[in-house]
Design brief:
seven-stranded mixed beta sheet; homodimer; 15 strands; alpha/beta; four-stranded parallel beta sheet
Chain lengths: 456, 456
């Protein structure tokens, strides 16, 4: 098909939408290392994980062999409410950059939660419902994941209890209100509703909370209530599995035109979006069927892949969760409060960490003022106001496109536009007012937190 | 085609998107009354209007005969960035309501401006650019129109000066920041940048502004600057013309399945969305080719169609704009500050007013707490967080669906979902906290402002 016939936006039909999620791990020769029990150092057993997570999700978490998991009909119906997401050909951006590169992006922001998080939220809520549970608990920082989970639970009639980091609860009242529209119970963390919350409040009366603390409260709330389980929006294998719907749709749309990307780019915090977007492409690469450059983009202020260590570490600052082998800056690493661009997790998905370690993926880190500049340039030509997280991928894609201009190369670039920036306008305002600074941790900062890695 | 084969969402292909806007007035036997010069009482001539508006837009404004206006290629390209908008079959809402009715909605909110306003903003900006102008001025209240215009101007490289009602500028900083992302010059009104602004500030030093004042400033800013014109986001015939793209797409999508709506429902403030959505359906009705019930939904706090008078009136509170014959509550009517649901204009599009007067349309008014309740119920089952404006149409559609349940009738209902409520969460919060009240003007309130109608 000739170049000109590729539309601005491609939507798959309902019949073309994926019927199964793809499990990247099935094609990995070296599997991601197992989760370890932090007490015994032994690999976590399904029965142990089932105290915290839903049964079926534990099965998905531990299964490194099954390539495809059928998407249940009820989840596929929910997907039809906001999917397929469009695969967009960035004609306007190409023209602005005067690049010979062909740029595509998969836009996951056109649902009310404003990001790709909903893809896994509905799956996790569905399995909780299927198990006959009354509800789920989770933590949320800025609120994207909490909003997505609230929407999924409202749809299924499941109780949803969100522990929201107190400073976000107070400073981001709009996210909190969206969750309330969807009937969620939102508690500022730390709170008096859990033992761990009470303990922290007694010790630090004025604290505005942290994600680590909110995780601990959400886990306690799940295990102390009959019929509740804890759910998590990133990092886990199961989340990458559900998010594979992004990459599967993107690839199906490109295949229609016989287009193969040379470079696939995604922002990376815990890895949920990147792992989902690259899944089918990485699969072909692992099976030796095709080659792609795959690039993770992370903030310079939280550079787990580019400056972290590949080692077993806690997934939470509270050091109660299982140990995961991953690229980590140390579980005590907290990016500066000046960092407004999301992607704040100290570690990285074990699957992506293993792939990066084995040379299947590249990683770059970028500064946040550059990210906001790219996001704004993108907004003006492509219309969409990007989430700062997505801005990381935009910047990297624009940099690759500029290289193509210099080299006169017609490369095909695909990147993930994970979400919208409607709830990040305080950060955009800072950027406009010249008040945004670039925090980059020193080597000493990172060494200090890495010194506390658990001994396994 | 069997019922089951209608997908949740229907997107037209690029080839199926409308190539021309449809001008409803061409099929009206009784044309809308002409705009009058407020000084002389004579119909406004093109040359007079061209001092304020772009030439081509004046031509569109005054043309009651031409049925189709070709959409210029550059506008069609811009439309491809965020259109076609989906026609959604509300399966989940139908199930929730247990109604035999078939409910469809046309969702205009999946672009960054968050509403249908962008459809006319790009058209108006395009003709300004084509005329060789340097920029455009406008006013904005809550900011939907200002955001849409900023996006369109950023795309075309046109200067955009927005006078934003001061209390909104201060209370809705996020809307203001979105406009700044798109490079607009946003001034809180009243300001020192215009004569009229200075005068008002001298008279009322602490004023937080009004839409009427912002219009006066924007009009002055356009006429006092070389190469600028004023643009407006609703009420005008030209705006309804551009917005016909909503109805044309909706009808084309329904035609694919051989579905004809029994009832078409839209919220109505100035009439831009309603006039656009109903255009092709009303056209068939006017030509006697088909019959549809067409329903305008307005807030009980600003009930121009249901409780206003069909008479010539000023379009602005400042009483400087031309007179329009329309359903009006009087140009001095200002809905209570308690009213959070948008649709605050005291009058109504002259075209829609004439159609309503001639019996082609029905109108209902609804209370805002009922609107927010319906909006929230909708959000929980259909996923999308609606703008309060859209909530009016949702409520009316749900009421019609409930009637179908009672009567056991399988009617087809189409309504317009104009936008998203991301920037209306203060209102949702009020609703959750039980602080929202229903303001309904008394007969005396309305008589008082109607007593000031101009004598023509």
């Amino acid at each position: 098909m000739s170049e000109k016939n590729i539309p601005y936006k491609t939507y798959l039909t309902e019949d073309e939408m994926p019927r199964a999620w793809y499990n990247l791990r099935a094609d990995m020769k070296v599997k991601p290392a197992p989760l370890l029990n932090p007490g015994t150092g032994a690999p976590m057993k399904a029965a142990e994980l089932e105290n915290v997570f839903c049964k079926e999700l534990v099965r998905q978490e531990l299964d490194d062999e099954t390539a495809y998991f059928e998407i249940p009909q009820e989840i596929r119906d929910f997907y039809k409410m906001y999917r397929p997401s469009p695969l967009v050909r960035a004609y306007c951006l190409e023209e602005k950059l005067k690049t010979p590169a062909k740029i595509y992006y998969k836009f996951e922001g056109s649902n009310t939660s404003g990001s790709h998080k909903l893809n896994s939220a509905i799956a996790q809520a569905y399995y909780a419902k299927q198990q006959g549970l009354a509800g789920v608990t989770t933590e949320t920082g800025a609120g994207q994941w909490g909003t997505a989970l609230s929407m999924a639970c409202a749809y299924l009639g499941l109780d949803c209890r969100v522990y929201m980091v107190k400073c976000s609860y107070e400073q981001k009242p709009f996210r909190r209100e969206v969750m309330k529209v969807y009937g969620a119970n939102v508690t500022p963390s730390p709170s008096e509703t859990t033992q761990v919350g009470k303990k922290i409040l007694a010790e630090f009366p004025g604290t505005t909370g942290s994600l680590g603390c909110a995780i601990s409260e959400a886990v306690e709330a799940a295990s102390s209530r009959e019929g509740y389980r804890y759910v998590l929006g990133s990092v886990l294998n199961q989340v990458l599995l559900h998010q594979s719907v992004i990459g599967l749709e993107a690839k199906a749309a490109l295949d229609k035109y016989g287009v193969k990307p040379d470079i696939v780019i995604g922002c990376a915090g815990g890895g949920s979006n990147l792992g989902g977007l690259i899944a089918p492409f990485m699969g072909e690469k692992l099976r030796g069927e095709a080659d792609y450059r795959i690039v993770a983009v992370e903030p310079a202020s939280c550079p787990s892949l580019t400056r972290g260590k590949f080692a077993y570490d806690f997934c939470d600052t509270g050091r109660v969760c299982p140990l995961s082998k991953m690229y980590t800056l140390g579980s005590s690493f907290i990016p500066s409060a000046d960092h407004a661009g999301g992607l704040r997790f100290h570690g990285m998905s074990a699957t992506l960490s293993q792939l990066y370690h084995d040379g299947y993926m590249e990683a770059v880190s970028v500064k946040q003022t550059d990210v906001f500049e790219a996001a704004e340039e993108f907004a003006r030509v492509e219309g969409i106001l990007p989430a700062p997280e997505s801005g990381h991928a935009i910047l990297a894609a624009m940099n690759e496109a500029k290289k193509c201009t210099e080299a006169g190369e017609e490369k095909v670039i695909l990147f993930g536009l994970t979400g919208t920036g409607y709830f990040d306008l305080v950060a955009y305002e800072k950027f406009h007012n010249g008040e945004m600074v670039n925090f980059v941790p020193t080597d000493e900062d990172i060494e200090r937190s890495l010194a506390q890695l658990p001994r396994v």
